Amino acid sequence: MRFVVICSVMLLVACSGPLKTTTPRFDGIYRSQSGTTKYGPVFDYLRFYPDGRVVSSTLIGTPEQFWVSTFKDIQYQSKGRYKLKDNRLSFVTLSPNSEVRYAGYMLSDITLELQIDSRATDYSAGRYYVFMKVDEEKLPDWVRLKTLKIENNGDLKL
Questions:
Q1: Any idea which of 113-117, 124-128, 129-133, 143-147 has the lowest mean pLDDT?
Q2: Is the pTM here over 0.85, yes or no?
Q3: Is there a contact between 66 and 55 (Cβ–Cβ < 8 Å)?
Q4: In the chain, where are the structural domains located?
Q5: What is the per-residue DSSP string for 49-117?
């Protein structure tokens, strides 16, 4: 099923003609399933900010749980700055224990195709990330207030 979805997205992008330069969306997260455990699926999450920052994490959880975690001072959260030129997207995220390089393409504002290379684990893979809008109704009040601050004046410090 996943293969069919990925092929459908690629076909849609290929048939739609030249892709206009786009930017990542900031009202949600990009998610790719990276595995499964006895507790459920494991997802890689990416969150982009208008000022060029990006936060990444791998966890078992919902998009809303990842969104909330980006507001907390989590010591091991990976952070970096992204570069986008002609739909080529690249960034390196750093945390105290890892360095992960990402390079690839924005196929659309809701689909990313990225090659991931982890220096800490020597893991390397190609992944498709799909955008998911975060349901603000599921967020705690304190997170909604901080989200408004970011949208109005970019106060969030990472």
A1: 143-147
A2: no
A3: no
A4: 19-153
A5: -TTSEEEEEEESS-HHHHHHHTTS--TT-EEEEEEEETTEEEEEEEETTEEEEEEEEEEETTEEEEEEE
